[in-house]
């Protein structure tokens, strides 16, 4: 999967090859791995809400001067599947450049095989999170 950052490609491969009964456990591990928001984003100040998610989900991407992207995600702990999307992106895209993030395939969650384990509505929410992240990165890159 050379069209995405190596860390993300590794996560995608792990999910795609995992037995279905293990996938939910893996998702829960990623849900627990979402980094806390920095103080300046408390109250979701300056973050974008993703209305496609059934759960309140907020994100903010910042393209750094060196072209790497710092992404912040927030979602309540009582929404583990949605938080897992944030954890997967946070870990898989850590230290990725704007160009690498923009190259992430839109069907990321299908490539992971998640449609076999979670509802289409949840997959659509995860896809919307990725789309908004990429849009924020593209807008900043254009500036």
From TrEMBL:
Organism: Actinoplanes aureus
Residue stretches making up the Fe-S metabolism associated domain: 13-136
A Pfam family recorded for this sequence: SufE
Transmembrane segments: none
Protein name: SufE family protein
InterPro entries for the chain: Fe-S_metab-assoc_dom (IPR003808)
Family statement drawn from the similarity comment of this UniProt entry: Belongs to the SufE family.
Listed Gene3D superfamilies: 3.90.1010.10
